Amino acid sequence: MARVAVVGVGAIGGVLAALLETMGRHEITLCTRRALEELIVTTPEAVVRVKARNLTDPKQAEGAQAEAVDWVLVATKTYDAGGAGAWLRVLAANGAAVAVVQNGVEHRERFAPYVQAERIVPVVIDCPVERQPDGTVAQRGAARMKVEEGRLGREFAALFMGSKAEIELTEDFKTAAWRKLCINAPGALNALTMKPAGVLRDEAMGRLALEMVRECVAVGRAEGARLDDSVGQQVLDGYRAQPRDSINSMLADRMAGRPMEIDARNGVIVRLGEKHGIATPLNRMAAAVLEQGEGNRK
């Protein structure tokens, strides 16, 4: 049994909490901005109602009334590192390990101001899931995670032992993170067109997706990731295999008028491309146009 806090209970955080709930052996705390009446996750196998303590302010985790946790799973959006950090300063104060389950390739860098690097476990997750308007979470397929090999990585995997989670420990997490970024980068096309996965079945859109991945591969290789030339076609084939109405998180955020993970999904390719002298025109365009769209909402 472990005491586990989940910070950020959106689509991915909901799936993580549901996986922990199905094993029936953990004490779960959900850390949210607003109180949750109930967390219901519809998985491919069942409807899971998560039984958990719910905290809405880091101050509620302070003092003798709040028990220390063994693990903190951070599943907030990447741009909300500051908000998550406020929880970490309290929840991880006594040495709890912190699993950062987020997009991008800067897991440790993002949380270095809040917790020691050696206590951070970077995780990438691939799970088709959507937060519904009524607050429930709809998981369409398996939750597959890649975790950095090491003692904490093995302990993280053990948290989910016996669940439906598929977890792979890898000694080359850099490559795993950049491969996931190759999948995320062309998702900006969905947000730009305001259309779900089916739009990438169009040949012209498919060519744009391939070029965006090509830019990501070039920068990833310069950063030390091992990515071959087949990644682009694999990514495009993956998008085209999804249901036509499948909505990625960036599109869902834009449709709902929420901030998007522009920097973690496209901006980082531009930033690190500049460092290595690699041109990234399509990712630069996507980031600039989406950022302008966000600015118009303010």
Written description of the protein model:
It is a single chain. The mean pLDDT is 94. Helix content is 43%, strand content 18%. Helix 7 (203-223) packs across helix 8 (231-241). The chain has helices spanning 11-23, 81-91, 107-111, 151-159, 173-184, 188-193, 203-223, 231-241, 249-255, 262-276, 281-297; strands at residues 3-7, 27-31, 39-42, 47-50, 53-55, 71-74, 97-101, 120-126, 129-131, 137-139, 144-148, 166-170. The chain contains eleven helices and twelve strands. The chain has 298 residues and is α/β, with parallel strands linked by helices. Strand 1, helix 1 and strand 2 (27-31) form a beta-alpha-beta unit. It has an eight-stranded mixed sheet, sandwiched between helices. Strands 4-3-10-9 form a four-stranded mixed sheet, covered by helices on one side.
Summarize the structure.
With about 300 residues, the protein is of the alpha/beta class. The chain is about 45% helix and about 20% strand. It has an eight-stranded mixed sheet, with helices on both faces. It has a four-stranded mixed sheet with strand order 4-3-10-9, with helices on one face.
